[in-house]
Design goal:
The chain is an alpha+beta fold and 54 residues long. Helices cover 30% and strands 15% of the residues. Helix 1 links the parallel strand 1 and strand 2.
């Protein structure tokens, strides 16, 4: 059985990351996607064009 683990926490090594690492240790073939590894920012396009809705 394939296992996919997704951690959406932005804090590297935080509680969610530690839990994800523990779950991965239980399932050696599990794929871990840790969003703290990605550089994600809002596009900001709407604000640049005066279309921002807040």
């Amino acid at each position: 059985m394939s296992v996919c683990i997704i951690s959406f926490s932005s804090r590297k090594g935080g509680n969610c990351g530690q839990i994800a690492a523990y779950l991965r240790s239980l399932h050696g073939d599990a794929k871990l996607y840790d969003f703290s590894d990605f550089n994600i920012h809002p596009c900001g396009g709407c604000a640049e064009h005066g279309n921002a809705v807040f």
